[in-house]
Amino acid sequence: MHRTGDLYGHFQTLEQQKETATLGMWIFLVTEVLFFGGLFLTYTINRSAFSTAFGIGSNTLDITLGAGNTVVLILSSLTMAMAVWSAQVGKKKLVSIFLIATLGLGSVFLGVKAVEYKQKFDHHLIPGRGFDMKYHPAHPMPGDDPKELALEKKEVEEAFSHDPDINAHGQLYFSLYFGMTGLHALHMIVGAGLLIWLIKGSFTGRFTPQYNTPVEIVGLYWHFVDIVWIYLFPLLYLIDRHR
Amino acid sequence: MSNTPPTSDLELPSTHYLNATYGSGIRSWLLTTDHKRIALLYLASVTVFFFIGGVLATMIRIHLLTPGGALVTPETYNKLFTMHGVAMIFFFLIPSIPAVLGNFLIPMMIGAKDLAFPKINLLSWYIYIIGGSFVLYSFGTGGLDTGWTFYTPLSSVYSNSAVTPAVIGIFINGFSSILTGLNFIVTIHTMRAPGMTWFRLPLFAWAHYATSLVMILGTPVVAITLLLAGLERMFHLGFFNPALGGDPILFQHLFWFYSHPAVYIMILPAMGVVSEIIPTFARKPIFGYSFIAGSSIAIAVIGFLVWAHHMFVTGESTYAALTFSFLSYLVAIPSAVKVFNWTSTLYKGSISWDPPMIYALGFIGLFVIGGLTGLFLACLGLDIHIHDTYFVVAHFHYIMVGGAVMGYVGGLHFWWPKITGRLYPESLSRAAAVVLFIGFNLTFFPQFILGYLGMPRRYHTYPPEFQVLNVLSTAGASILALGYLLPMIYLTWSMRYGKVAGKNPWPATGLEWTTDSPPPTENFHVTPEVTWEPYDFQNRPDLGLAAGTRPLAPAQGDD
Prior knowledge:
The complex is a heterodimer.
Chain A: E1 3-4, E2 7-8, H1 14-49, H2 51-59, H3 63-89, H4 92-122, H5 135-138, H6 146-162, H7 166-203, H8 213-237
Antiparallel strand pairs in A: 1-2
Helix pairs in contact in A: 1-2, 1-7, 1-8, 2-6, 2-7, 3-4, 3-8, 4-7, 7-8
Chain B: H1 25-30, H2 35-63, H3 74-110, H4 118-140, H5 154-158, H6 163-190, H7 203-235, H8 248-282, H9 289-302, H10 318-346, H11 355-378, H12 380-386, H13 390-420, H14 426-453, H15 467-497
């Protein structure tokens, strides 16, 4: 379909085009809810069956990094909303600035996730061959706090006495951890790509009070990805955190 | 008695969507965003998969001619029925009517120039092709032997067949479905022409709206489920593997949560086709328009609540089984409403026996049988006996082949003049419809009896006393194959040599029939404004019918 200015040929008005794009993005987000929903259901079933293993697994995650990442992502949603607002009031320079800030914060999030994944790899907590929940307590890494490590060792041994299959059940926890945060990270990478596209557009001054639909619908997508993380963080990081 | 105009001094429009060129030939098709061209791209691709599924079915039926099973080894037999199911369900039935007829017609039916998202429409087709390629790769490198249902841990641990590429292919293909559904919902909401209110929409549009709701809500769940099963297979995870603490029943719940609504994705569009054909060839407004529209939505909603009727023998609690059985009976009610309304439309109508009408009437009869036998299966006590027998196989083939495929072929016949601008040979097409009906019943009715007598499904052998019924079924399959081959031949023939159809050969009342055949790229030269109710034959002088609904003069001679 041909485009004259911002209006695609199969629409009658810009208003219709905007309504269509927005409704399309909302419906897409509904499908994403169902998509992640399958994983959340699997998580629920498995956690209720293997709560000990899930507790132990959760305690091996770095809560500082996780909480920090949560703040980073919420901030990125703020900058994204500011980008939409800037477009709506015609402050074109601010649009670019806020979009770049969003991209920056999103990249920080992904970087921290990479660090966390590397940590899991070092601790033999990647599901598959070599998975062993007893590995880290028995093999301290530089930078480990000896008191924390001793506590972890005690917890793991206690868990093994309650549930001899802790390694198998712990693997389920970590499969879900990597599956859910991995799928989330994939969505963030796609979001980053969309942001780069928007930033390029914003440099040409394309987004105005009359036409800012792309910013708005990418904003919707970004907020959704943020909300998914807000559910993931407590469900994965905050199980049995009594200490 | 038929409606086709007696003389053919009509001409094709000089430019239309098929010969409009923007760029070089093949590129203008592969990079098109015209919903009508995309529909034809889908037509070609789903026909290829239908053919593949059909070849596999032929091999199954030949193998089952003898109790010992003479054609293939038991392992290969498992692959035959698995690949038949995967090809037919995911790559033929689910896309067929929505992606071919829905894509072509919905913008025209609502008076729009295209769907809401034309580029996403093309992307849907490419996703379908990529997903299909993965599955064909799987078929070619060892096949699949897990059943189209991919139950774990066979699929995720023990099977030695090419499960991983197949599961990846179906996962990818799911997004084709999701994007099509998304496109339809948004289009119907925001792109209707002035005066086209919700209750003036053709019932085909209502049917596709309901189908799209199911597509967008159900497909993501099967996508993630198959992804999990594939990851389990690749990385030895344990969600569905009891040896690692996992639960195979969890897979079944997740799988059937989509796959039951999926059968409504397959049947609702066909019901929409029938709702268009019946009033046209009864020359009467459809009876109970709002009930038919509402029943489509009801089927979509209740259809999400019945999935565990596929799992009655897995050990689910009696209370759960009772609930799902009750809800399964409930979901039959809106379907019955449609059948009653179609039948009431025929009463005191002016019936003509054009080929689309034969397919639509065949649909009603076969769908009633298929639907009622579904109720037999939903009955808990009876299901213990007939679960996993040929009774189930016959039930779903009555609905999917006797219902959905007849709806698809009937719809192709109904809208073929609009799509190509040409008519097809009348007597031959009527005969082909009857051949299909006879062949279908001969193939699948014996299977009800076989199932009731105890022949299990997915078995490569059977006791000798079942041979007669199996031979009848195979004989029927050869007639059924003829019933499909004939239209493929004469419809293709008609594209070059058929009589020119004109704008509205039947005539029918939809907006799509007010524009040229074939239509211009932008569908309408002038944006239509709708002031009439749907199926209102009485108040449409432009249709060339006298008020009093006498049919036109019969066609002179046959082609």
